[in-house]
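Please decode residue identities from the backbone states below.
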């Protein structure tokens, strides 16, 4: 009976991939977790591998990001070999700015997965800067009655995401899951939030990266109900800002330079107003944040002043245990969070 139950659980909840990789502008970050059901994941490998001098990824939502696949393949091959990692399942994390994530509400009861996808693509058609038929769409039912189901929906340009997949598969890896940075962090942090907060509480998770920040609202400790990313415009970029969502959501903001604390504040206020007035939010209990910008001071105080609830920094050691052989300071622990979150997630 125990064997049958474990098999059924494996079919319902695919085993976490154990290995996560995050692509950043000037480096890749690897994290490996030993994950046991019912126990805290253990981080036993962490690798931060800068690209060769002068090389950077220019992330674009509209066109392939990897300009020299051969050079990137050689670089990653060396990184994996030196880390003692060979082909296996791997989870991929990419910047928030490469994807759009919404809660989408459908009218009527779709008959099967294919109809759900067709309806979602139709709803998103006018909100994207690229052809929706040439996009990678993922979705998960997260609530609502059968007549008006709600889906957490993410979409990326196909030629962007497939390039990363092909790169890793060419090195012998099976890409079992693809996440954005903030979604990886939230999934890793969800168990911590459940311990901290009442079951009916809402919280924000603010991910402050070097060149963008994302505000995510998680309702009742379950799934993101609102995700907004402010990203800097790459010099010479012609990518248009997306229009307002059809469902009435806030349009995605955009910055034309390195964002400041004032930029953060300008986006916090309308997001908070939207939560209270449009989403009827009254159960906000905490703001969690992860900041990779040392020059933005007293982020916790800024968030507490705006949201009027406690603000708590991301702490990797609350979500995973750290292997004894790893030497990890706070900046590295903050940085590796997204790759660790991908490694701990579900993988096909």
């Amino acid at each position: 009976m125990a064997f049958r139950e474990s098999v059924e659980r494996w079919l319902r909840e695919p085993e976490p991939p154990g290995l996560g990789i995050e692509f950043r502008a000037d480096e890749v970050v690897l994290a490996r977790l030993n994950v046991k059901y019912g126990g805290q994941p253990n981080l036993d490998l962490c690798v931060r591998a800068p690209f060769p001098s002068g090389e950077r990824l220019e992330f674009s939502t509209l066109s392939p990001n990897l300009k020299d696949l051969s050079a990137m393949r050689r670089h990653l091959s060396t990184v994996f070999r030196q880390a003692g990692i060979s082909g296996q399942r791997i989870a991929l994390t990419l910047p928030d700015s490469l994807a759009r994530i919404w809660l989408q509400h459908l009218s009527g009861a779709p008959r099967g997965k294919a109809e759900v996808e067709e309806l979602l693509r139709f709803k998103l058609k006018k909100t994207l800067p690229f052809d929706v038929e040439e996009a990678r769409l993922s979705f998960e039912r997260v609530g609502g009655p059968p007549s008006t189901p709600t889906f957490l929906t993410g979409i990326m340009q196909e030629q962007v995401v497939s390039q990363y997949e092909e790169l890793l598969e060419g090195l012998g890896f099976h890409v079992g899951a693809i996440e954005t940075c903030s979604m990886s962090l939230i999934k890793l942090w969800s168990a911590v939030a459940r311990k901290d907060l009442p079951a009916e509480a809402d919280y924000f998770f603010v991910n402050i990266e070097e060149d963008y920040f994302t505000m995510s609202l998680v309702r009742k400790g379950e799934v993101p109900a609102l995700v907004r990313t402010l990203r800097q415009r790459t010099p010479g970029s012609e990518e248009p800002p997306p229009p307002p969502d059809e469902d009435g959501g806030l349009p995605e903001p955009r910055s034309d330079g390195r964002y400041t604390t004032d930029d953060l504040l300008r986006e916090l206020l309308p997001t908070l107003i939207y939560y209270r007035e449009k989403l009827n939010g009254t159960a906000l209990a905490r703001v969690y944040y992860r900041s990779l910008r040392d020059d933005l001071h007293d982020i916790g105080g800024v968030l507490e002043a705006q949201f009027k609830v406690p603000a708590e920094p991301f702490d990797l050691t609350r979500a995973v245990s750290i292997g004894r052989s790893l030497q990890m300071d706070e900046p590295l622990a903050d940085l590796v969070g997204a790759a660790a979150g991908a490694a701990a997630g579900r993988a096909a």
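Observation: The mean pLDDT is 85.
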